[in-house]
Specification:
single chain; alpha/beta; Rossmann fold; six-stranded mixed sheet; three-stranded antiparallel sheet; globular; disordered C terminus
Length: 269
Amino acid sequence: MIMRVTIQDVEIAIGDTRIVHGASIELPDGAFVGVIGPNGCGKTTLMRAIYRSLRPAAGTIDIGGQDPWAVPAREAAQRTAVVAQESVVGFEFTVAEVAAMGRIPHKRSFDRESASDRRIVADALCEVGMAEMGDRAFSSLSGGERQRVLIARALVQESKVLILDEPTNHLDVRYQLDVLHRVRGLGITTLAALHDLNLAAAWCDHIYVMHEGRLVASGPPEEALDAELISAVFGVRALAFRHPITGRHQMLFDRADARTGPRRAAAHE
């Protein structure tokens, strides 16, 4: 099934405050698309509209030919999985139980867990390096471990569209790379809000740049992550270069007002 996602002229307000202004995004089937921008620029708000957490004030959202707001929540969840920036899991669930929650959209009331469900959960936990922790209490995990379990829960959902809001938060560098490698290898349509511009450049097919609630640039990483534009949007000095190992577009940053590098302490201070 082709899962192209089209967001057209979406406006989002919270109370009387307009947060997102006329956002339009195209996600080709199977593409990994990133949204970057400073804190408070509207990335998370836009994500929430796509996965039915915040209704847009105007504009349209189309996921595989359907408006997610026009279908039952269960059907929308079968098409779209999400790893939100803030996820609360109540009660004392184990790691395996939290991951297994991803199967809920595929089940009817009172359906029991099947052998196939258990295999899918086990595979997903293995993919995020949590295979040995299935019986651990979710509440006992570190922030990074919890994030990996929540990503496993999204994989277990087996949806055709994946929405990731800061998926690498709390992850050490190994699992940042492992998770993004795994997600890209799924070949499903993915939209990810990312703080780390170099991770976005390394893994995304296409990047949208957001500033003050508006999309101000888009294109392949080497075009969207223009040093002058990034300097203006983030208020830093930026330098673009090619990674010596991967050959991918990458960036270096410094404070906008920095005139020299960091001062070194004198040897005898």
